Amino acid sequence: MLQLVWFKRDLRVHDHGPLVAAAEAGRVLPVFVHEPEVQQADDFSPRHAMFLRQSLDALHTALRERGVGLLELRGALPEVFDALCDALPIAAIHAHEETGNAITYARDRRVRAWAKRRGVPLHERAGAGVVRRLATRDGWHDRWVATMRHPCARAPEVLVGATDDELCRIPASLRFARPDGTHLVANPREHARQAGGREQAESLLHSFLHERGEDYRRAMSSPSEAELACSRLSAHLAYGTLSNREAYQAARTRVRELRDSTAAVAPSARTPLVRWQQSLVSFASRLEWRDHFMQKLEDEPELEHRPFSPLYDDVWPHEVDTMRLDAWRTGHTGFPLVDACMRSLEATGWLTFRMRAMVMSFASHYLWLHWRHAGAVLARAFVDYEPGIHWMQCQMQAGSTGINTIRIYNPVKQAEEHDPDGTFVRRWVPELATLPTTDLYRPWDTPAMVQLMHGLHIGGDYSLPIVSPVSAHAQARDALHAVKQQAQRSGESARVWQRHGSRRTPLGTPNR
Ligand SMILES: Cc1cc2nc3c(=O)[nH]c(=O)nc-3n(C[C@H](O)[C@H](O)[C@H](O)COP(=O)(O)OP(=O)(O)OC[C@H]3O[C@@H](n4cnc5c(N)ncnc54)[C@H](O)[C@@H]3O)c2cc1C
Fold it and tell me: Which pLDDT belongs to residue 508?
């Protein structure tokens, strides 16, 4: 009999409870299913396909080294499992619980119902700190810490798999043909983006904890510096090439080492060591935020599509304003920092948190675009797209939760604070590269004479702002404050906080 290990967004052999349980129970059949419904959805893009491909290849290699390969199949679920069970003696299915989008949520329910009907035991385990069927948010933090401190499951050293005879019985129609490698060079633009696979995850984790992370706390909001100073682990955590627990435990070990080193050196030499510790403590708290946000979607999967409170149902127009959405998506709004961020995102697939918050706020507040429309653009663009974080953050930055402080980012002020010498804007908006920094963030105010001197025509070479910054800001502020007051008066805010609010920070805190 075979123990089927169903890999989803947990593409690793380390800290993988279901793989260990399957190996203890007998022969294993590691399976990944390419589901057309998932891969043709509007939140899946070629950059996700690339990261997935690289991570699957790495997983296949890791499994092969242990004695079995990864079987890649194609089709809808549970039909694929049903056909597999007709062909092979499957004793049980082992998988992680997934907090995904509406499609994977519905698919998991179908698979569960099918397994029950077919009499195949389906053993699902918690992926990380997200709790299924959570009764209350009280005590969530302590529970999360305990889960993170629990020892990681050791990768099995040897695995025994299906025989060749058995594998031959799998119908050809189910098999997914693994590409031969040429796809990896087919589109050179893809190489500007992060690569998938365990090796990359381990190398990023190590370089962050030992070389790059010292300035994390200070530099994380700078669009240029964050590229190196942040961990850059998000896509790996999203596809599970590294577990949240592995990252947390590695950070904790490193903080302990740094504390010991600090105690051993003279007070005058302690500053950088203390900076390191503060940065890594901040990093570890973000790993908790990760699960905190995902828990919200786990508890209320509908939040991918609808606001936290019905009071926000009709705040933004449901019709998409294509002209505005396209100008924002392609980086042609006339606001230099917004345009630089959106162009850099298109090329690299990543933005630091502060810039994500700023572009989302700009779309929702200045352009008055529905958070679903703007969020869908970002979901396709972020290599690290993780529904549980993404849609919660989109709503929070748009201001549709009713429990967080409404924060309308001013793109000029953000540029002055986080790109003070204009490095980032000049890199991604080369039309403006020659403008002096004093004019760079408000090019619409650049005197005609200065434009002439720099051979630049604002309104020609670079767009004029597509909305008036002053009136757009004021309209958004008034509209959102009115709904928030209604939410507070009607008890909606209290209801949302009771269900989803972090107990570590009071109601109204901006980021959680
Ligand atoms: C509108 C918007 C959409 C976002 N969409 C996503 C998304 O789809 N996927 C995603 O992983 N993150 C998302 N984030 C959160 C955050 O911006 C990214 O996790 C972070 O920038 C990734 O870079 P990093 O791995 O270097 O992060 P680091 O700063 O090094 O943080 C380490 C890890 O902690 C987690 N984390 C960090 N910040 C947050 C946060 N604010 N909320 C929740 N978890 C966090 C991530 O898993 C991250 O990899 C979004 C933020 C906003 C404002």
Answer: 43
With b for 16 or more beta-carbon neighbours within 10 A and e for fewer, the 478-496 pattern comes to eebeebbeebeeeebbeeb
| Cβ of residue 231 lying under 6 Å from some atom of ligand 1 | yes
User: What's the pLDDT at 186?
Assistant: 52
Q: Give the span between the Cα atoms of 306 and 371, in whole angstroms.
A: 10
371 Cα–ligand 1 center, Å:
17
Is ligand 1 within 6 A of the CB of residue 356? yes
pLDDT of residue 145: 95
| Ligand 1 pocket, mutate which of 353, 378, 414, 502 (most atoms under 8 A from CB) | 353
Whole-prediction pTM: 0.96
C-alpha span between 177 and 487 (Å, rounded): 52
Contact in structure between 72 and 56 (CB atoms under 8 Å): yes
| Residue at 89: amino acid letter | P
In sequence order, the 6+-apart residues with CB closer than 8 A to the CB of 285 are none
Peptide bond preceding 121 in cis form (omega within 30 of 0): no
Would you list the DSSP string of 291-354? HHHHHHHHH-GGGGTS-SSGGGTTTS-SS--HHHHHHHHHT-SS-HHHHHHHHHHHHHS---HH
* CB 70, CB 7: distance < 8 Å: yes
What's residue 220's pLDDT?
Answer: 96
pLDDT at 354: 98
Positions in the chain whose pLDDT score sits under 50 = 506-511
Phi, psi of 144 (to 5 degrees): -60, -45
Position 506 scores a pLDDT of 47
Pocket test of ligand 1: the residue of 234, 361, 364 to mutate, having most ligand atoms within 8 Å of its CB, is 234
Mutate to test the pocket of ligand 1, among 227, 290, 373, 500 (most ligand atoms within 8 A of CB): 290
The answer for residues whose C-beta is within 8 angstroms of residue 6's C-beta and 6 or more apart is: 18, 31, 32, 33, 93, 94, 95
d(CA 29, CA 52): 20
3 token code pair: 């123990």
- Residue 128's pLDDT is 81
What pLDDT score was predicted for residue 268? 86
